[in-house]
Amino acid sequence: KVEEFLSSNNDGAIYVLEFFDFTSNGITTSSAAGTSEAYQSFLQSLGGGSRLVFAMERKSQFTDAQKPLNWTHAYVMEYPNGSAFYELFLNHTDLASILSEISQPHSTYMGTKNSTGYEKYPNMFSEGLGSPQILHFHGLHFRSRTFVDEFDELTEKIKVQNGFRTQAWLDIDADCGPSVEIDQFRVETIPSWADYGNAIVDPIWGEGALLRQQGITFNSFSGFAENDAIITNLYNN
C-alpha cells in the first residue's frame, strides 16, 4: 500500500509521519535524546523542497487501545510528491547509517492534507499559529465520521473563542512498521491550560464529546506535546 500511495501521488504534497519510542525502560536517556536530535537534523537537511513541519516530544497520551501506539517523539515531513520522498529520503546515501543508530522500532504513516475541514471550519484554521502554549494532537480511527463531524460543528465556536488553532488535519492512506491503524492525524494549538479548561467545561462541548467518542474506535489516541515543538500551520504557510 505504501508503494501504491507514493506512485499515485506525484501531483501534490505528501506527508510522512514517523513515531519513535526513544526510551529505555520507560525513561528517555541522554543517548536517546541525542539520537532524536540527530534524526531531526537529518530530516531538516534533506532539502529539495521538503520541510520538517512538525517535531514534537510527547508529554501525555490518552487511549483505550489494548496495544496503543507507544512513542516519545514524532516527526512530520512534507515532500513535494511521492517521487521526491524516494529521491530525497529513501535513496539518501546516509539513510542506512542514520537508521542503524536507531535501535527502537518505529511506526510510519503517509497521507495528504485534508482540505474539507479548512473549508467547513475556516475560523479554526485561518489565524496562523496564534499564541501556542499547548500542542494538542489526535490520532483518529473512525467508526462514524458523521458523529465526529457533529463534534467539530458543535465545538467550532467554543474552540475559536478560547484561542484553539487547528494547524493540520492529515488523512492517512498508508502505514508501515508496528503501527496502530488510524485514519486521520490532527494537530492544534491552545494558548493556555485555562483556555483548555474553559472549553471542555462548556456543556455543548460535553455533548459533542459524547458524539466524538461514539465516532471513533479504541485505536484512537489524543494527548499533549512539549510547547517548544516545531509547529507549522499547513493552511497558511
Protein topology:
Layout (H helix, E strand, L loop, with lengths): L1 H6 L6 E7 L9 H15 L6 E13 L9 E7 L2 H9 L4 H6 L5 E8 L2 H5 L1 H4 L8 E7 L4 H17 L3 E12 L7 E7 L2 H8 L2 H13 L5 E5 L12
Antiparallel strand pairs: 1-3, 1-4, 2-3, 2-8, 4-6, 5-7, 5-8, 6-7
Describe this structure in words.
Helix 7 (145-161) runs antiparallel to helix 9 (203-215). The chain is built from 9 helices and 8 strands. 32% of the residues are buried. It starts with a helix and ends in a 12-residue tail after the last strand. The model has no long low-confidence stretch (mean pLDDT 88). A hairpin with a 7-residue loop joins strand 6 and strand 7 (184-190). The protein has an 8-stranded antiparallel beta barrel. With 237 residues, it is an alpha+beta fold.
Q: Quick recap of the structure?
A:
The chain has 237 residues and is of the alpha+beta class.
* Computed Rg: 18 Å
Termini separation comes to 29 Å
The largest sheet, given as strand count, sense and whether it forms a barrel, is: 8 strands, antiparallel, barrel
By oligomeric state, this entry counts as single chain
Question: Which term fits the overall shape?
Answer: globular
Report the order of strands and helices.
HEHEEHHEHHEHEEHHE
The total beta strand count reads 8
Secondary structure tally, helices? 9
Overall average pLDDT: 88
Judged by helices, strands and strand pairing, the structural class is alpha+beta
Which structural traits does this protein have?
single chain, 237 residues, alpha+beta, 9 helices
